[in-house]
Amino acid sequence: MARVVTFGELMVRLQPYHYERFVQTDHLEFTFGGGEANVAVSLANYGVDAVYVTRLPTHAIGQAAVNSLRRYGVDTSMVVRGGDRVGIYYNEKGASQRGSICIYDRAHSAIQESQPSDFDWDKIFEGAEWFHFTGITPALGPNLVETCRQACKAAKARGIKISCDLNYRGKLWTRQQAKEAMTDLCQYVDVCISNEEDAKDVFGIEAERTDITAGTLNHEGYKSVAKQLADKFVFEKVAITLRESHSASDNGWSAMLYDVSGDEYCFSKKYDLHIVDRVGGGDSFGGGLIYALLNGKSTQEAVEFAVAASALKHAIEGDYNLVTVAEVERLAGGDGSGRIQR
Hints:
Layout: E1 3-7, E2 11-16, E3 28-33, H1 35-45, E4 49-53, E5 55-56, H2 60-70, E6 80-81, E7 88-92, E8 101-105, H3 121-124, E9 130-134, H4 142-157, E10 161-165, H5 175-185, E11 191-194, H6 198-203, H7 219-233, E12 237-245, E13 250-259, E14 264-267, E15 271-274, H8 281-294, H9 299-313, H10 325-332
Helix pairs in contact: 1-8, 8-9, 9-10
């Protein structure tokens, strides 16, 4: 069984029930989520030995966060315990023409106040084949930039494949800060995952004749973006998720995977999604892609599996993608009827 390590922040997610607004609700749903944790849960559900690394307090909320991963089979033995608080994000689900709202309350969280010396990467990477992180983690502070750098160096020294989802978050750092940190970190990355905005926000690389607010995409433009990213950082593969936002409730969803060695650009089929919960959609794509590549799927098969996994996630409440390989392969194979399984 493949061993995959992911590293990032696990947060409390607080959200009004159904589609209520913050200003009208008097009770909130309490769950957990976070980019790299979401990837770990996806992989564990696919039968992969998924190891999640973070820093969490020893109190009851920190333990509840750990338990939220253990219940799905994620290995939490490398979680560092310490600090005083678990980061929080408040999520207001949008609908129709009203967009979702995300408010962060993660300052002074346990991982944000961690130091590079807290993490023993020699021990963490024992037996690992893959390491995954996102651009959210180094955005938490210079100490996390250095921790990610040390993790990437340790992984590279062991021949471990490294994937990174650029995941630019303007509420956490500036474009210039992101460019400086990610330019450094991406030199270690083998598989880069981006979306229709990240490449532009972080590196100034933009798809031509594409208007994401109008929901129009230009495939040739994205091929150019992928090649520019690969040429800049010598990536082995570049994946770009393509979201056509018709409204907060209805999106078109597809992706492209560029394999550099074969100069092969593969576009997936497009799914017309009616969204239950879009948080974690990109992470579920990342989890699906890592699984597919670890299992030797072709470029076309890999992007189809990853997009199908993510399409299913959009129909599941919460951050975590709770689907099986069989369910993903059924959808990727063309069965999108949604008929009851008896």
